[in-house]
Amino acid sequence: MNVNIILFDDFETMDAFGPAQIFGMAPEHFYLNYLSVNGGIVTSGQGVKVWTEILIPEEIMDILVIPGGKGARRLLHLEEKSLKLMKEAAEEADLCLMVGNGSALTAQTGLLYHRKIADYDYDENWKRMFTAGLIRVPNIRWMSDGKYYSCSSTAASLDMSLGVVADATDIDVAARVARKLGYAWDSENEEGILI
Prior knowledge:
The structure is a single chain. By secondary structure, the chain is of the alpha/beta class. An 8-stranded mixed β-sheet has the order 3-4-2-1-5-6-10-9, with helices on both faces. Strands 7-8 form a two-stranded parallel sheet. The longest helix is centred in the last third of the chain and has 15 residues, at 154-168. Helices cover 37% and strands 23% of the residues. It contains 7 helices and 10 strands. The radius of gyration is 15 Å and the shape is globular.
């Protein structure tokens, strides 16, 4: 399966590379693509530079990952073209994974209207403005609503990604990835409820 990770300047590094690490540990099942609206080098909020291919929504297959970060605010305010391309990409994907305020980007496309998302820690006024029409579920690390998976934090993106690996392949594959990483994954906690 293809895992298409959309990047934009000032994305949160681990929001993208946490899931990349999980999917990348099972190369027999997943192939990683790094994409951006214009292609070329994109720089994370922590200064990591990543070479990306141009996002062509019609070519998106399988899994789409949308990280959060400071750059999400700029996209929401200034870049209508980017949001249009993200909407088209999310529509093409079989699964759409959103980390933190990456769900606010997807919300602005209208695709999440009346859907549930895992609530994330961010400015409450900002969330009300950009996630209107969504049902934000508190006290949960990650969840899915149809093909849309969301998580509350960077750390929760690991559990969410392992859940997707288990759903897309087999729970044994996800458990093997977690073991290789030395990550204590609670496979019994299917939708990441905080306990």
